[in-house]
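ping. complex inputs:
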Amino acid sequence: MEVTEILKKYSADIDQEITAALEEVDPETLRQASEHLVKAGGKKLRPSLVVLSAEAVGGQVKSALKTGAAVELIHTFSLIHDDIMDQDEKRRGKPSVHVLWGEPTAILAGDTLFSKAFETVMRSEEDGVPAPTILPALNAVVDSCVKICEGQALDMGFAERTDVTEEEYLNMIFKKTAALIAAATKAGAIVGGGTPEQIEALSEYGRLIGMAFQIQDDYLDVASSEEDLGKPVGSDIVEGKMTLLVVNALARASEEDHNRLLTILKEEGDEHVSEAMEIMEKYGSIEYAWQVAQEDVNQAKQLLRDVLDDSPAREALLLIADFVLQRSN
Amino acid sequence: MEVTEILKKYSADIDQEITAALEEVDPETLRQASEHLVKAGGKKLRPSLVVLSAEAVGGQVKSALKTGAAVELIHTFSLIHDDIMDQDEKRRGKPSVHVLWGEPTAILAGDTLFSKAFETVMRSEEDGVPAPTILPALNAVVDSCVKICEGQALDMGFAERTDVTEEEYLNMIFKKTAALIAAATKAGAIVGGGTPEQIEALSEYGRLIGMAFQIQDDYLDVASSEEDLGKPVGSDIVEGKMTLLVVNALARASEEDHNRLLTILKEEGDEHVSEAMEIMEKYGSIEYAWQVAQEDVNQAKQLLRDVLDDSPAREALLLIADFVLQRSN
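pong. complex structure:
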């Protein structure tokens, strides 16, 4: 089965849970603003990971649907607030929530999704998940929310710095991106009734493919094509973003190349993008990023093979791990 | 005992829980921004209500401290986000979080407090509260968070309307103000091990004193003095705010007085504040608001006497109910 088919498999059920979670939000403006981005598409990767993790440890799909919906609500909440902070006007090809409804309503829409997410996890009791199981699942989700906030704060702080270490960078993307994916697979394994060993392995699988996902993003920005990316190659360089490629190249480069790369990152415009890419190439930083992502994915797959019996759900999780690297945008 | 003494009694323990909840927030900027407003004072009314409610049903103070801290974190989260939405530059006599750290960090600080609040309720397990008790307590808190968002959205919507009914107004203040106070007393009764009847009564007590609290705010704006209020009498009128007094007067007034009151509310400046107050006085709306608040408090006190044995905690809750009406600012 293709990954796109896997992700489509649970999409309707997840959407139904999300609609149910939001249908009573009042006033109508707040309901619309809260629903806008969840209804605007998205791959539904995170909720599918919740459901597949539950199935992979022998649990029922139904036990994991509400937790899956909750993880998607949290992902959407963070996108809405990030778009306000970063003043991004588009998301999933549509105007951002704050562009359509204004910042105050967008802040509230995010807060509403956040609240509804926790409510939705707790309502898993209706689907037969016992209270002592819901609490650790909720804990995994809440813990990732703290990390998402910290990750975004670290990322904003990096914009003013030129001395970010690789360790700091990896910690930032763990918190900003990988923590929620790890929470998805961990919470799924918990509500699915996995053993402590399986829960731990699925959590780590989620963290690893989350890290690989972000690093692959960094890599594709210079290694893909404008056609595949849907935006010019080297956009991260133009924006002066700290990526694994940049952090690695800055650490390895000669003083001259180091300073030249910093200068290009700070300047506006795309005149010297290819020069920056040459510096990263020269020190092997493009290849390095690709290898780190590759190793993360291999390790993630090995973990699953170690603790899970073969099953369609395990196969799907293995395919998703590969998909993180195969995608071209 | 005086109410101020009652509120001071648990203050140090609550502060300690809040500090513990936030001490590991990283980066430092985010930790400072998250901590600023919780450390800026405040009466600690809500967390004290959690602890007193637990004690009043025979529970231990310790079982309720983390839930109390969580309720204060949620209250603070909502103040930080409200101040951004309303562009209020001061809070508790100090510059707002967004004034000191900028809007992006203020949004994140609110989100962090929100996440930490749920984490803190769940950590009650460390204090001996069993998992099946934590879940309903958490449910009460989460439910109030949804309502806080809805209440703020309704309030923002009222600013553009002149036909707000009393029912709509009461629904708005229930969600914006009373729901969290009801969650405080309900969650306290739950973690304290109260009977379903006691939990229900304490929840309703919280809702009623919360409603009275907000209505008394509306009342004091025209019935107190500039000295006591710390701001000019009639500020709500100058701001054109919908209050119970305004909504009631608009519903009762002759067409001429109705239109005149609307005109004064819409105009900028304070030239006609006393004329607006005269219209409200003429239709008995000032007296009416006072009576509604009075009745809410009486009902709240009766509920406690019906379901709780006499105890210092019950006495304290009765005193707090009276305090809601006796305060002059």
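The two ends of chain A are 20 Å apart (CA to CA).
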